[in-house]
Amino acid sequence: MERLFERTLFASRWVMAPFYLGLAAALVLLLVKFLQELFHAIPNVVAMSESELVLSILSLIDLSLAGNLLLLVIFSGYENFVSKLDIGDHRDRPEWMGKIDYSGMKLKLVASIVAISAIQLLRAFMNIGAMETADLAWLVGIHMTFVVSGVLLALMDRLTESAEGHGKDPHLEKGTVVAEGTVIEHGSDGKSDNQQNKSS
Length: 200
Hints:
This protein is mainly alpha-helical.
């Protein structure tokens, strides 16, 4: 009974799979909007002023960053919470796939949001003459909120890593298992007796 219950709970992770499929569909919607912006800009590029062209390009960059954010959430979220992607050593496999844990995904997610917010803020400054002071202040405040949140998340992860490594002998190789109650003596060169025996 217990094993059946645990297997059911473990299989419930597949409930998340349609969410990531829906995000993949949202990526197609972003592509449609990207192409719409691009085809709108191309015929009018000669008549555009420099600032209008820059604003149009910033809109395209904004959409591409949102697409990158979606891909990051789809791949990392699926591999962290549902199942590993069985694509083998495909030559087009991104280097970060399979290497980003939940903590790393949070940091990259916030970094992407900060980048998107910065693009929005830059677009507002490019069109500052048509912006209300209050609206501009809100944009700056929201952007700074994202920046501070990212810094605090990175700091929390750093403190967590430090806490996990607290009490470990820095001279031992990573992954070395030491039995409880074992006393490790270090030589004059700072190496443990175990490491000195390996080198000899």
